[in-house]
Amino acid sequence: VHPSKLDFFCKLGYGKQDICKVLENLGQEALEDDVLKELIRMGSKPQALESQAQPSPLKLIARGSCSASPGSKWLGEDESDSSDHLRPIVIDGSNVAMSHGNKEVFSCWGIQLAVDWFRERGHKYIKVFVPLWRKEPPRQDSPIADQHILEELERQSILVYTPSRKVKGKRVVCYDDRYIVKVAYEKDGVIVSNDHYRDLQNENPEWKWFIEQRLLMYSFVSNRFMPPDDPLGRHGPTLNNFLSKKPVLPEPKWQPCPYGKKCTYGNKCKFYHPERPHQAQLSVADELRAKTKVSLNLGKEEEQRNH
């Protein structure tokens, strides 16, 4: 049996025996839609749906027991910790702080809000990159608010300072964006920034793909860090799937046909027809032709009898 197809339908909840039986009948090269139709025709149901239909017997748990209910687990999650399924987070500290400070003040509180948001979701690996010169006392041309937050995040091993030094009174600053993209790429994580890093995209084709697919934009709404629900657009993954190593596939929903019995699409109709579950779905025109053929044959038989 084709392992990828078997794995796909097992994830949807169908039993291995049913899948193997259908693939033997239809052949290994059968389309996924055809296999799914055959499974439904056989009356095979996903195990997740069967468990919902049959109420499970109540379990008595001893007092003081801390055992978690199986319902609290994610779909497809094994015994390991849920944080293993979440992607590492790399935050562009300068971009987030300036965005929260309305591009006028380097607001360290904005960085704290972003870190807290990912912590609450359960992400264990969170790194914030900020240039080292932000550690210096603030100047009039570059004001900093709540600078003590940087010290606290550094103590927690979340904040990383990118190197900088002074040569003959001039500050030499390393390019912090390169650190951000490089670490996120190596960790197979997510970059949190509203910057598009166009210069780094042109520099490395692998980075270009990574920045396009793993850049998480955000907004601050009344001191609330808010990433979009659809980070890659309307037709892309949800925010939960975007931040997960193992995205959860949506279960197929069988939507009934809005035209019902008046539908003229026949077996080409993509919607569910409860009135014809086990027979080949014919179009109305084909059904009429079949009926006229039957009536004509009956008429001929009667004429022959009369003669």
From TrEMBL:
Keywords assigned by UniProt, alphabetized: Endonuclease, Hydrolase, Magnesium, Metal-binding, Nuclease, Zinc, Zinc-finger
GO MF annotation: an example: mRNA binding
Any Gene Ontology CC annotation: nucleus
Zinc finger (C3H1-type): 251-276
Cofactor(s) required for function per UniProt: Mg(2+)
Domain (C3H1-type) ranges: 251-276
Pfam families, per the entry: RNase_Zc3h12a, UBA_6
Superkingdom of the source species: Eukaryota
Protein family membership: Belongs to the ZC3H12 family.
Name of the protein this chain belongs to: Putative ribonuclease ZC3H12D
Organism: Eudyptes chrysocome
